Amino acid sequence: MSPSFLDALGLAVSYAFMFGFIGAATLLMRREILRAAAARKVIHIGVAHWWLIAMALMNDPWVASAGPASFIIINALALRFRLLPAMDGGADRRNLGTVYFPVSLLVLVNLCWRGVMPPWVGGIAVLVLGWGDGLAALVGDGNGAPGVRIWGGRKSAAGTLLMFSASFAVTLIFTLIFNSRYGALVPAIGVSTIVATAATIVELFTPFGIDNITVPLAVAALYAGVFA
User: N- or C-end of the chain: fewer Cβ atoms within 10 A?
Assistant: First the structure.
């Protein structure tokens, strides 16, 4: 089946959204409203919401894959040549997190759009990564606490708590909206607690940037395998 008008519209909106968000963060960084590291995480949180655009507008898996696939290349070039300072500012070049994120999106798109799991389960996985990991890093970097070093990353108690809380909130919202099996409040709270705990543990013990792959794929596998 050929891509529809909505698919084409979704692709156009996707690129406008992504580059618009990156541009806004770059402007805020240049005006010194955001530090480089904060701008990077704001982009991390913001672009995770691309999944909602894909869910609303895209049906063709090839079209839905185009954005993540292109951003694997764009982000790799940006990191190598420092083309997008708001995305890689303050980051160690050995940390390929900005490349791993669209890799995860590409994998999840093909799992969801090809019928392995519902797209809304992918939405949980992506937004847990976006909000949980993004807020954890922002709070961990900004609260002045020394934290501890775990496999190449600094972890703080405040950041870990934010990772759990954001993961819980994302999972609860999606479960209540989309999951008829656990859609009542009490079972949804139970599901969300389990998923948030797993996501937090995976994020805590994943080495050096690879959590952009391990967290969303672990969340998607757990939710799809047990609760969907």
Answer: N
